[in-house]
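User: Modeling request: complex.
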Amino acid sequence: MQWYEYFLKRVLLFIPIMWGVSIFVFLIVHLVPGSPAVTMLGAQATPELVEEIERELGLHRPMPVQYVEWLAGVLQGDLGTSYSNRRPVASVLAERFWVSLQLVLMTFPVAFVFAIPLGIAAAMKKHSKVDYASMGIGVIGVSIPTFFSAVLLMTVFAVWLGWLPVSGYVSPREDLLESIRHMILPVTSMALVAIAVMMRMMRSSMLDTVGEEYIRFLKAKGMSRRTIMLGHALKNSFIPVITIMGLQFGYMLSGAVVIEEIFAIPGLGRTILQAVLQRDYPLVQGSVLLIALWFAVVNLVTDLAVAYLDPRIMEGDS
Amino acid sequence: MSTETDTQTDIEIDEPGPFHEFYEAFSENRIAVFGLGLLAFLIIITLLADFIAPYSATAQNYDAVLEGPSMDHPMGTDELGRDIFSRVLFGYRIIFSITVGGVMMAFTMGTLLGLAAGYYGGWLDEFLMRGVDVLMSFPSLILALALIAAIGPSRWGIALVLGIAYTPIFARVARSESVSLSNEAFIRSLEVRGVSTPRILIAHMFPNVLGPLIVTVTLQLAFGILTTATLSFLGVGVQPPSPSLGLMLADGKDIIGRAWWMSLFPGVAIMLPVIAFNTIGDGLRDTFDPKQVRN
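Assistant: Request completed. Predicted assembly structure:
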């Protein structure tokens, strides 16, 4: 299969999947037992208010009609009105998305810089102290809840030592230095998981590659272990790592829910949590849709990149 | 490859069974054995919580508010004078029951759907796997939050949410095993002999895909505990006054300077079973897939 054929196939597959996602997101409101309007209003529910909201959400019409109208709106960028913010959902999301994106874009390079060299070092010296130490960090990194590591970091570096702000967010356009100072703890807590996952993958992928025929051949030829590992195994073992990196990049927006809540950062993650707690259904739908879109696009780009680097993958997929 | 040479060099009088061979390989991995021991310990203290816990999980005592660790209260007390050690023990019961319930549900549904999809192929396969793609377009925490927004937070609601969120993962693993298995001669011969399809799927294919699925179960249990604790921490999981490890940490985090024990012990308590499941899962994966060279 040619690369552009694969590209086209994957992009075309993306459309029905996003369509499925839109149906699921639409149904969230309709899974609510009883009337969502009553649930949303809680104690303030008067028959008039309930009717008003039901009319606004169009709940009295048949479901397929509601879906088509909702989807038509979504495609034009109209995600409804957020009740808790009294603003259009789209404008709330546009504002919060950049904050989360900043968090993710700062976290990813940090994770990369630590994870990849550590993973390589561990694989080069299997069963050495470096290997055991990095594996220990790896297991703890994937086992510690993000909220626990965040609370620990916050306590030590912000509360006890007072080196960094406890919480809050400053826009980089306002004050770049302060913005970075506020981001250090959130970025570190978020990077820990990604470091652990990426490092483990780097190590095991490299060890997998070393077990392959052509590497044994190089060994038999008398090439030094160092040249084999860094010159030949590294390149090939990087491909599964790219897949994992893409997944982590996508997952970071969901990790942001916890981090943004703890450090009081007004991003997308905090928005979705507030929306769930306040039963602001249009905002829940909008933010879930946006995160799913982000996740799907990141995964698509990763798949395409991996297929480009390792064309064998395209064969397996056809 | 390496296992072949191993069995050749080991001259044994008794032919070792498959389980024995598996056990040999698994027990070589000392970290995984440690994980298994840790898990056994946690299961025992959870089952015996009624006998071990010095206090009830919800009993308040205003004479012992925010006390540090002592002989009376090994992990201290919280702002209502509740014994943290007792709450951790009963908290384990809740978090384990939710996670195991959710993962078992996903395992059952996902495996059946995956086996059927792989075995039948055609439009059923296409339909089910596109559904799986859709559910996997959401990070699981986001999927969980979306479902909680609809059904509301509750203990069994969380189990249901985990069950739905993890089903696609099991379906994918089971399907890929099922596709290659359904072309095997022994499955074809069962069809020729007129064995019913549900019987083929459950009695003959299911045992053969169990290996890779057990690795998935173990790793999903680790994820499940983290997700359950995270949802509780965020206030959309187990509701008070039930002892929930995530919620205990959330309660303690604002007064961590005055009462570190309120956050530290529940936090470590969450990590222990996750470490156990992760190390066991890694060990199982290495045992089932001995592709890596030893040394």
